[in-house]
Each structure stands twice: as C-alpha cells, then as structure tokens.
Amino acid sequence: MPRELLKRVAFTQLLIFGGLYLASVATFVLMADGITERFTAMARGPYLLTAIGAQVRLIPAYGVLALVATALSVPVLARFGEVSRARLLVQVLVADVVIALLALGPVLRNGPGLVDTVARKLPAIDLYALYRWHVLDVLTLLFAGLVLFAIASVGPSTPRGVNGRVPRGVNGRMLLVGVALLLAGATTLHRTPPPKATVLDRPNVLIIAADSWRFDRVGVHGAKHADLTPNIDAFSKQAIDLTNLHVATASTLESWVTFFTGQLPSTHGIRSMYPSRDEVRAVDQLSATVPRLLSAAGYDTFVSSDWVGNCFDLVDLGFGTRHVGSVQNFEALLLEATVKAHPLVPLAFGGLPGVLGDVLVPGRSALASQARPGALVDQLFDDVDASVKAKRPFLGMLFLSPTHLPYNSRHPFNVKYGTPGYSGPHRYQVEVTAHELITTGFSPTLPREAIEHVQDLYDDAVSDFDDTVGRVLGELDARGLTQNTLVIITTDHGEDLYDPGSTLGHGTNFFGGDQSTHIPFFLRLPGQSLPSTVSTLTRTVDLAPTLLSALGLPVPPSMEGVNLLPVLRGEGTEPDLISFAETCYLFFPKAQAMTGLTEAERAEVVELSGAADTLEVDPGFRHNLVLRPAYREQVIAAKDRMVRTTRWKLIEIPGKTRPIRRLYDVLADPQQTTNLAGRGLPEEAELAALLARPDCRARHP
C-alpha cells in the first residue's frame, strides 16, 4: 500500500467527513430553532454543554466512516498513479460516491427498517423498487468484491513513478484471511439451537403487547382486512378472549402502572406521562406489583421493548432485567434531535447489532425509525433461555411500537393495504413535527383520501405486529414451553383514527366510541385448548389479581381490581362491574381536542395550555420532563372523565360554570352518536354520582 497516497487520501477523507459533520451540526441548530422557544433557550442556556456533548458523541461515527472510505478508496486510486491535490480531491469525492452507492446494498439489506427510514424521507421516490429489481443484491455483491479487492491489495508492492506505488497482485494469504473473516461474521448471525425446557411446577408467563392497538383491528373481531392478524386469530382458537375490556387511561405509562399494580390512577398516583420524582418514587417503593410478587416467588422477570417501553425506565415496576428505550428526559431529547440532524450516522450504522451500534448511534433506542422487532425478540429469548437453563420460571414481556404513531411498520408490511400509487401526505408514515404536536395537534381537516391512507398505514402496522407474534409463539414452541406458559396478547390502550369527534392519537377525549379505551386481550392458560369468550364488562385494573390467582399466588389487599379467574374458567357468575377512565395529558391546548363539541360548549370548556407552558425540566430527577407544580392540579382537574356500565356510558367534561355531559346507551347505540344527557334519565344522575366518588369495586347501582 503506497504510504504517501494513504496519508493524502486519509487527510482528504477527514476533510470531507469533517465538512459533513459540521453541516449536520448546523442542521441541528436550525432544527432546534424550529421546535419551541423554550427548547431552544434551554439548549443554548443551561443545557448548552449537554447539547455540545451530544454533538461530540457523533464524532466517532464520522471517524469510522472516514477510515472505511480511506481503506476502500486507496487501492482503487493507487491505480491512477500520482495526481495533483485538486485532482485527488475530485477522485476521492467520486470514489466516496461510488462506495456509498455500493454500500447501500449490504447496509439496506441487513439494517432492519433502513429502507423504510429513507423512503419516509423521500416519499416521492419508489425506493422499494430496489427490492423488486434485486438492485440491493447486485450492490451487495459489488461491495463484497470491492472489500475483497481492498484486502487483496494489502501486501508486497513495487514502485511506480517517483512517489506512487501500486499493488503487485492478489495477496493469497490476505485474501483467505478476509474470506475467513467474512464467513465467520456470517456464521455469527445464526443463533445457536434453543435449549429444551423441563416442565416446572409453576407456569411461565409471557406478555406480548403492541402499543396503541385497537380492539377492532383483529381478524376474529371483524377487522376490515380478513388477512390482518392470521397468527393472533390462530392463537385465539386456544385462548380466552375478553371482548369488553377497558383501560383506565389511554396513555402508556398510566396504563401499564394500572395493569401491574391492580390500582386505579387515582390510587397509584401516576396521572400523566410526566410524573414528578415523588410520584415515581411512590410507585418504585410499592412491594405489591406483579413483577415484584413473582420475583419473590422465584420467577425471573424481564421486559424487552424499544422507544415505547421507556415508561419502564422511568418507573421501576419490579422487572429484574429491563432492555427498554431510555426515558425521554431533556438530555435524551437533545440526543434524539442530534441524531436526526446527522442522518448519515443511523443510515450507516443503525443496523449494527449490540454495543457497537449503540456506541456509533447514541440514543438509537429512543428513535422510532430505529425500532427493530427482530432484535427485541432475540433479546427476549436470550433472557428466556437463561431462565430455562437455570430451571427457573419466568415472567417475560415484549412490548412493540409499530402500531403507535407514526405507524412506521417494516417493509413489505408498510405497503400492504394502501392504495397503489398514493402520493398524498403521510405516504409511508404519519408526518408531524414537534412544533405542530405542541401547538396545534393533528389536523382535523385532512382529505378523505388521506384519512383512509392513514388508516391503511395503521393496518399495515397491525399486520407487522402480528408477524412478530407468530415468530414469538414459534420460538416458544421450539423450546417446548408452550404447554407450560401462560401467554397474554394485548396492548396498553387503543387509538383514534379520525373516528367521529377525534383526529389521531389516544386518550385526548372519549368521543367517537370506545376506540381508545376498549382493547383486545387474549389469554391462553397452560394446558387449555378450548377457546372461550367473556363479554362481560372488565377493566385492566382486574388483570393483576386475575394473573396472580391463575398462578396460585395470593392477591394483596392493596389491589383494587376483581379476580376474574372464576369467570374465565366458567365457574362463577359474571360480576356487574363499573369502569372508570380519565383522559391523558395533552401536548397541545385542550381546545384542539374538543372537535366533538358545539361552539357554545367549546366556549364553556375550561381551557388549559399545552406542553410549551405546562412542562419543565427537573435537573434533580434525571433531567426528566415533569409537570410544573403550578399547573399540576389544573392538569388533573381539566381531565375529561368517563364512567360506564354494561349498558350506559357517561362522559363529563369540566366546564367553567357546569360540567358538559354526554350520555349514551351503548347497547342500542354502539357508535355513540345520540346524546341522551339532559333528558332527565335517572341513569345520568346515578352515573354522575359514581363519577364524583369513583370506587372500582362498585357494582351496578
């Protein structure tokens, strides 16, 4: 290898990638200006060093890129002999473009979701033609040839000209070493055969969940697309289907805390996704959570998730091992914005497994575009296998993000149901900026064609989740664990999809039906083979005591829910339960969520500002975003609340002089289009009294 040429090319590459780095830093500054004034002021004020540190953390990635580009370009450039500095710069730039194009083959083929990420940034280009025409396969072969050529060029050389040197030929020894390394790397991609499980006295527990999954997006629940959820449909034939299960808050953090504590939000104290350190500490200290109780009973407990699982990093519910996204504190938001401003880094290194990928793409677990379901499944079963080898029962949880906004499912799922040739807004995912989310929310005036496309994108994401469910169940069966594992397939809440009176998101109001609070829930008990359907009204607050009872463990008195196990087994009478719910924290001003009200009612609503005013950073609490103390009581008081029985549903919206109500007969009017409030029905007064004093053990009045 000619040393002089190597030095000159390396220096030139450092200049090129240094320029790209500085350009991306400038992009970050412009992006920060486009979010909110407070964000920009904080990034340039008390968090200036943090912002600078986030930029510095990306330097190693550019260094690796410069190193790789140098190693691959020098053997080719050496063929041209000595050239001037100006011509060398042009040659290096051309070589970099060629290398980048060839590298797209292995990068996009092996990096989950990378084509999807690029396609979303360039919606006018049909990048999926790269698959159909096998372009990526050809590029991969050419790139492999370039790598082998570079490896072969390392070795003896003969002088050429005054300063230039060229390779004398293929160095057989180095070529063999390179091929061996490539084969070794390919071999590591194959996982070792899973261990076979021994039957234990206590059953395992596996929870498979997708964020924001609607009840009506399941084949057996009458989904629009008959082929939407084939794996879940097959599972339902061996499971118990709770067809009338409702959450207490359609927000991830509050919902999972309710699920695992068996307490309503008014009891466990997590009333928004931005709790204070005291509120989090109170939950962290609870001894009667499902993971802690199972751990005390000898279970290994672990959760595997991507960015939507950062709630398990924020609040410690007792999982012994947590492979989840980092909590979205201000430092994480700065790092996320930084990585987004350097798109070359996640594109080049986002698909790298393990620690190397995490180092070169810092904070990638918080990026929706870097969600990797396959890697999460592997992580989950690494923990499962460790429990199997140790002959210990386990509680494992897999929590996935595709069904959460922005609905960025993997190819080919993300083009499964949409109209071919669609070129309108939100082609491959819902596009919304942080500024829009904070100030205006989601547009209520999208064209019908765009709304239908967004709904198709959501169905694409459900199909993606179903595919992962099939793989998880297959991995479970391969280990001989199926007959001794209690399996739950569910979600934390539903989703609005431009239902009447709603736009996108979840938990902002109770209009349009039960799409945010009504969730799918399938439970397969060990040894059970016959399916059953439980249509009685049930709540997620009932799930913790039910799960503990199914495992033969006592239910602590702190849990407010009802043990449903006798009903699930057909051994008891159905309880006449009452379900309570409250809306979640709003990023945008509340008036933006009130699309289902008349103008007179909108004027009566108690107004509340959005995130730009109500949030602050607590430096003493991991720099987490929290509700400003001056706003906390206002945020809680401004929540819409709902109470329902098997037949009736009452919504109450705080008003300036009186509450605004909606009363529906959900049996006669399941779409909840006819408001019966104000007509003197006795049910309105009865439900309003219950709403004033919620007690989740209450029966029908």
Structure report:
The protein has 701 residues and is α/β, with parallel strands linked by helices. The protein has 2 domains: 3-188, no CATH class; 204-334 and 374-551, Alkaline Phosphatase, subunit A (3-Layer(aba) Sandwich). 43% of the residues lie in helices and 12% in strands. The chain contains 27 helices and 21 strands. The protein has an 8-stranded mixed β-sheet with strand order 7-6-8-3-9-13-4-14, sandwiched between helices. The chain has a 4-stranded antiparallel β-sheet with strand order 16-19-20-21, with helices on one face. Strand 1 (157-159) and strand 2 form a beta hairpin. Helix 1 runs antiparallel to helix 4 (59-77), helix 4 (59-77) packs across helix 5 (85-110) and helix 8 crosses helix 9. The chain is globular. Mean pLDDT is 86; it is low at 157-176 and 186-190.
